[in-house]
Write a structure and sequence with these properties.
Helix content: 25-40%
Strand order of the largest sheet: 8-7-16-17-18-15-19
Distance between the termini: 11 Å
Number of helices: 17
Low-confidence stretches: none
Largest sheet: 7 strands, mixed
Shape: globular
Number of strands: 20
Strand content: 15-25%
Structural class: alpha/beta
Radius of gyration: 22 Å
CATH superfamily of the largest domain: FAD/NAD(P)-binding domain
Length: 494
């Protein structure tokens, strides 16, 4: 039986490991932390359970396909519940828009803003769905191992259909003139760490996917999916070594031969790296030959996604009138974006508020509320601030000032039982995300598709990469696809 070493137990690494174990390989996952999941792990404190990072389940069929691939029924391992509305968006003037997936109700709400708004939205859906099918079939679910995989007439014609030279915001503004709806349809690029003013227009597919496929909630939080994958992996005989840090990837000539753990070589037939690609290149690959073009200078010169400040708050009371997912815009969204991506802390930030305890009584004690607040901030490369205790406290106070304006949270600071803060420094130090960039390498045009680091490493055989900084990119469904591509390519080679 051929042996596979998987470095890192994030969701992309788990996806690759589970597929390979299911297909008859002997897979060992090495995870430096005491739980799997990476950025999709869990914080437990004072009876409250918080998702560390991802919170939004889009395209649940992608999550389910992985379990089904291994021969089981997904509903025996994970419980997804559709949300309706999928989220509330609140604007600075106090107007609140509830976004749902019932197209009839959605069109009725849009018509109230003007028939041309509804008409523009339908045109947006039509064009964006066409783009999505092109992207899925020609780019997202395809590995670009060799130049000819990309530089061929069929793929290049498909690329032209995506109109990627346009920005996400401008692509939406062509169809919808209402500024609030423009914001509502463009802020989602921040889910993958890039400004809608700069991100390629292909990322307008994110709100389209929310509308057409719905947004779901996983009972127990996102980590319950990690637990489902771990359970199935172990059922199939896979090995997990928690609290085990890989010190180096070992090579023999131009071929990966295994990993070094606690100073001891552990040999295998192939190595899958789920550690963040820039971190792996800088720290785990010592061979210049195996680094190829990804030298230290090249890695640090690449473009990185923004980071986030996260507050995990356990309250001693329930809060009415919240959805599971809530978004609050600041006074000037364009200024907010400019500040984030030029290295300044936003002066009047937009923020996302997640409250899973609205629908799940397992994540907070009875009669209490679980809140998660996410504020996009600069990553450490361009950031002009040091996240010391004083900066963290000062910016946390700014967020609490905004939270106190929400109905039911006027006394929030007096009702806190649990408070945990995640900063860019913690993303860098604890999760080994280069520059604390929460979403990995930025998905700019020159760092996407063929130009993004590849799943099959071009400079060493039997070495593969899965995760947000490699093709096809960030986001949980995309990370799961990354794991699938790695599994397929590895099995083709072995």
């Amino acid at each position: 039986m051929q042996k596979i070493s998987v470095v890192g137990g994030g969701v992309a690494g788990l996806a690759a490991a589970l597929r390979l174990q299911s297909d008859g390989y002997a897979v060992t996952i090495y995870e430096r932390r005491d739980q799997l999941g990476g950025k999709m792990s869990r914080i437990e404190k004072g009876g409250f359970t918080f998702d560390l990072g991802p919170t939004i389940v889009m395209m649940p069929h992608v999550y389910e396909e992985l379990l089904r691939y291994t021969g089981v029924e997904p509903s025996d391992y994970i419980n997804f519940k559709p949300l309706d509305p999928i989220y509330d968006v609140t604007f600075p003037d106090g107007e609140k828009i509830s976004v749902n997936t019932d197209l009839a109700d959605l069109i009725k709400d849009l018509e109230a803003r003007g028939e041309e708004v509804a008409q523009g939205y339908l045109r947006y859906l039509d064009e964006t769905y066409r783009k999505y099918l092109v992207a899925k079939n020609h780019f997202i679910e395809k590995s670009f191992r060799r130049p000819r995989d990309f530089y061929n007439p069929k793929t290049l014609r498909a690329g032209l259909k995506l109109k990627t030279f346009d920005s996400a915001h401008h692509a939406i503004a062509k169809f919808v003139k209402d500024e609030k709806i423009q914001k509502l349809l463009s802020f989602q690029t921040l889910y993958i760490g890039i400004s809608p003013r700069k991100g390629p227009s292909i990322y307008t597919i994110i709100p389209m996917i929310e509308t057409l496929y719905g947004v779901h909630y996983a009972k127990g939080g996102m980590y319950s999916y990690v637990e489902a994958l771990q359970k199935r992996f172990e059922e199939l005989g896979g090995t997990i070594r928690l609290g085990t840090e890989v010190e180096e990837i070992l090579f023999g000539g131009d071929e990966a031969k295994g990993v070094k753990v606690n100073g001891t070589p552990v040999y295998s037939d192939a190595v899958v790296v789920n550690a963040d690609f820039p971190y792996a290149m800088d720290n785990l690959i010592k061979s210049d030959r195996a680094k190829g073009k990804y030298t230290e200078k090249k890695i640090h010169a690449m473009d990185y996604s923004c980071s986030v400040m996260l507050l995990y708050i356990g309250l001693d009371k329930k809060v009415p009138n919240l959805q599971v997912h809530n978004l609050y815009f600041g006074g000037d969204f364009d200024e907010n974006l400019r500040e984030i991506f030029s290295g300044e802390l936003p002066s009047d930030p937009a923020f996302y508020l997640y409250s899973p305890s609205q629908v799940d009584d397992t994540v907070a004690p009875e009669g209490k509320e679980n809140l998660y607040v996410l504020v996009p901030v600069p990553e450490l490369k361009t950031g002009r601030q040091t996240w010391d205790e004083a900066t963290t406290k000062r910016y946390r106070e700014k967020i609490f000032k905004r939270l106190r304006q929400i109905e039911g949270l006027e006394d929030i600071e007096d009702r806190i039982e649990v408070l945990e803060t995640m900063t860019p420094n913690r993303f860098q130090d604890e999760l080994k995300a280069m520059y604390g960039a929460t979403f990995g390498l930025a998905p700019t045009l020159r760092q996407s598709n063929y130009w993004r680091p590849k799943n099959v490493h071009p400079y060493a055989r039997r070495l593969y990469f899965a995760g947000s900084s490699v093709h096809p990119g960030a986001g949980v469904p995309i990370a799961l696809t990354s794991g699938k591509l790695v599994s397929d390519e590895l099995q083709r080679d072995l």
